[in-house]
Fold this sequence. Notes:
This protein has helices spanning 2-10, 15-25, 31-40.
Amino acid sequence: MKSVIYELRANDVSEEDIEIIISKVKNRLSEKNLDIELQKLGYPKIFTVDYDDIDEFNDDDDFDDFQSIKRSKDYDLD
């Protein structure tokens, strides 16, 4: 339970809200239940990730500008 409280504090959940959340989930402690209670109080999820909400393909990389470097024909490997 200490690690849960640590994570809540590290994510700026107020002490009052931490007490409320812990009291509600103490008998059914799970990451999902913690996040449900966080969202009820207006906080974002901390313990679970909705992978469907994450972009599968991020086109913000710089690989489009990459040009391959060609080896000179005169280059001797010996």
